[in-house]
Every structure is written in C-alpha cells, then in structure tokens.
Design goal:
261 residues, eight-stranded parallel sheet, globular, binds zinc ion
C-alpha cells in the first residue's frame, strides 16, 4: 500500500528540527510522498531546500489568499520559480472571504495571476476556496483554468461546487475534516464524487483527523483520511490508497517525471 499526502505545510515552524521524525512517521504509515504547498514567496527558499534534500517531498509555489504581508506575486516570478523540477504545481492560491473582510479585489487579482502562471508554466493549480465558491468558479472560468486543471484542496463546499470544478478538469481533495462527526455534507460529497477525481491530504499542521483531532497534524495522518473514505464508500483501504495515489501522479505529472515509480 502507498499513500500520498497531496497538501501540507512542512516548511512551517511547527516542524523545524523534527523533519526526520515526520518522515519516519510517514514511512511507518506507508505515506510515501507529501506535497508541500507554498503560502508566500518569502518561504520559497525553505521549500526548495526541503524538496532538494528529501526525495519524499514535492513542492508548489504560490501566495495564499490570506497572506497580507510580503511580496505580491507576478506571473513572471511564479513561472520562473515553477521551473524547478520538484515544483509540481502553482499554489496554494484562491479566494477566502471567511477570514478577511473589506474590498478583496486584491485577492481576486492575485488569484488571476496564479491561474495565468499555471497556464504558462504548464503546471496544475492548487486552489483554496472558503466562503467564496461562486467567485472562485467564476474566476476559474474567466481565466480559462480548465486549460491546465488542478485540485480544489481541503474541500468543504457543496456537491454542486465540486461538480462545477470537476467539469473544468479539477480534482477534489479531502482533509481530516471528512473524519469529523459533524461534517455531514463533506462526508456526502466524499461518498458521491467519482473515485477517479479524488485526492486526500492533511493540510498539516492544521486540521488533524480523528483520532488526533486538536493535536498538531502531520502527513502520516493522511492514513486516517483514507480510512474514513474507505468506510464511507465501503471499499477497501488498499483501493483508496491505490486510486488516490494514481490520481496524484496523473494530476501532478511532473512529480512522476522526477521519480521512477
Ligand atoms: Zn488552504
Ligand atoms: Zn494549505
């Protein structure tokens, strides 16, 4: 069995000095790879250093919609950073109307930059959307995101939103939230979408799944996300692992190019 954590933040201070331990726990849970998403341009050097040192880790470059400090990304800067062979995606990017208020036109402009960069770099998008499903889909359409595809990460929206994203060639990724007792709608979406479009993730250090809820999350715990999907769909854990791993390498095609699997 081989699992992949399609979204985490191993460059965050929570893991400084304990990366080897984190990688050991991954191996114990058969989590063979993890994709570390970017949240700011300032953190890119740390992500590149990590992916260069550890064959299990891939990277993505982007500026999170909640990042209010730091350098604003340009298409040229993102495309240039995406040339690194272990940078397999552009993101995370998207819209978040939950945490920030006021005129968020800058957030939409930043999201457009990322879509344009992904199309130019020929690397897929990692999209974060919260309380902004309608605008997220609208910008994806307006900028032609279906020309490159990607993933709707840590998905917490409706089945209709998932379907609209899948029509544009996007995958849907479930985090530990799917294992929470009260997450009825997300469990429903995870039961209904085609397995061929599903990815799994931890979004570490956030959102540790049951039975680790409330603790610092880590990529090893993607096992518990996979277990919950298996339970919901009444299929074997090994099947969830096989399909989601295959989906990961199909979407992030430059990841398969950089290793021999
Ligand atoms: Zn996110
Ligand atoms: Zn994230």
């Amino acid at each position: 069995m081989m699992l992949v954590d399609s979204h985490c933040h191993l460059d965050f201070p929570e893991y400084s000095g304990i990366i080897e331990q984190i990688l050991d726990s991954m191996a114990e849970n058969q989590v063979m790879y993890a994709l570390c998403a970017g949240v700011s341009l300032e953190r890119v050097p740390a992500i590149l250093a990590m992916v260069e040192q550890h064959p299990q880790i891939f990277g993505a470059v982007g500026v999170h919609p909640d990042s209010q400090e730091g350098v604003e990304p340009t298409v040229a800067a993102l495309v240039d950073l995406a040339r690194h062979p272990k940078v397999v995606a552009i993101g995370e990017t998207g819209l978040d109307y939950y945490r920030l208020e006021g005129d968020l036109e800058w957030q939409r402009e930043r999201f457009r930059m990322h879509i344009r960069a992904a199309l130019e770099a020929r690397k897929p998008l990692i999209i974060h959307t919260r309380a902004a499903a309608e605008d997220t889909l609208r910008l994806m359409r307006e900028e032609g995101a279906e020309g490159i595809g990607g993933v709707m990460h840590c998905f917490t929206e409706s089945l209709e939103t998932a379907e609209a994203a899948m029509e544009m060639g996007f995958y849907i990724s479930f985090s530990g939230i799917v294992s929470f007792k009260n997450a009825r709608e997300i469990k429903e979406v995870a039961t209904r979408i085609p397995m061929e479009r599903m990815l799994i993730e931890t979004d570490s250090p956030y959102l540790a799944p049951s039975p680790h809820r409330g603790k610092t999350n880590q990529p090893a715990y993607v096992l518990h996300v996979a277990e919950e999907i298996a339970r919901l769909r009444q299929i074997a854990l090994a099947e969830v692992a096989e399909i989601t791993t295959r989906n990961f390498f199909r979407l992030f095609h430059s990841a398969s190019a950089s290793i021999a699997i």
